[in-house]
Write a structure and sequence with these properties.
By secondary structure, the chain is α+β, with helices and mostly antiparallel strands. 63% of the residues lie in helices and 11% in strands.
Length: 287
């Protein structure tokens, strides 16, 4: 707030206060006339970001999701190698329990406060709540950016990365760690396929999608570090619960890192362009 004195008047002078918001560039300036105790007339002004400025800032948060890629070959190659690696490794280890000792060690802490915390992590990222969480996050992105294309890209990238993992689960069909051999088994016992972990894949998909949406390198680094800690925390909780082998969660993290960029690229460069082309054709036909 800045004040400028313009003139002096007797103390009995009556002054009307007028507030006049004025747009100037990215800010709104509020001008206010005032009189102090000595009767001096002045004007104060303050500025705040305009609605348009705030909207542009919000769009920059996730606007990078719509940036067309110029590295198709690298994205396809990386995703292809990652997908094949996850699938082949899964087929090799599906009857193996080589890392079961790690599960037993971590499951020894599955009691008390730690047990309650890891159980809560597993419950929070259950499929039903994951779907709700994706919808809520998409709604937040839409509210911030007011851009349906950005919001749809955000949702599709997460969903495609996470749901496509189901095919690997069906193909590999690795049994869960044997709960009868664990000191503090998870209840109720999980009977679906263990490899890869859907929980870890979902968290990784969310983190990678957020990082992909940030244009500033510093913001990407910050989001990547925080998101990486979240992924490691969820992955550790799943092993402590005894519901996944370490190899299950590692495979899911690899899947999320390589598949999310491919899902985003296909949606933006293929699906959205096809939608735009179809919309243009309908507009021409209507005319």
């Amino acid at each position: 707030m800045h004040r400028v004195f313009l003139a002096s008047f007797p103390e009995t002078t009556e002054v009307t206060v007028v507030i006049a918001p004025t747009n100037f560039g990215d800010n709104v300036f509020s001008l206010t006339e005032f009189a102090d105790h000595d009767g001096r007339l002045g004007m104060s002004f303050a500025s705040k970001p305009s609605e348009e400025s705030r909207l542009r800032t919000a769009r920059r948060l996730f606007g990078a999701l719509l940036t067309p890629t110029t590295q198709w070959a690298r994205i396809i190659w990386t995703a292809g190698v990652g997908i094949v690696l996850v699938l082949v490794v899964g087929l090799i280890i599906r009857t193996s329990r080589f890392d079961f000792a790690v599960v037993q060690f971590f499951n020894g802490y599955h009691h008390g406060v730690v047990g309650s915390l890891t159980n809560a992590v597993y419950a929070i990222f259950e499929p039903a709540l994951a779907i709700v969480g994706t919808a809520v996050l998409t709604g937040i992105v839409l509210a911030l950016t007011r851009n349906l294309r950005v919001a749809s890209t955000f949702a599709v990238t997460i969903a495609a990365t996470w749901l496509s993992l189901a095919a690997v689960k069906l193909i590999v069909h690795r049994p869960r760690p044997d709960s009868s051999l664990l000191p503090f088994p998870f209840a109720p016992a999980q009977v679906d396929a263990s490899y890869p972990s859907g929980h870890a894949a979902f968290v990784t998909a969310v983190v990678v999608t957020i990082v992909l949406g940030l244009a500033a390198r510093r913001s990407r680094w910050v989001a990547g570090i925080i998101g990486g800690l979240l992924i490691v925390g969820v992955a550790t909780a799943l092993v402590v619960d005894g519901v996944h082998y370490p190899s299950d969660v590692i495979a899911s993290i690899v899947w999320g890192i390589v598949v999310a960029p491919l899902a985003r690229t296909i949606w933006v460069s293929v699906a959205l362009r096809a939608i735009d082309a179809a919309s243009s054709r309908r507009s021409r036909d209507a005319r």
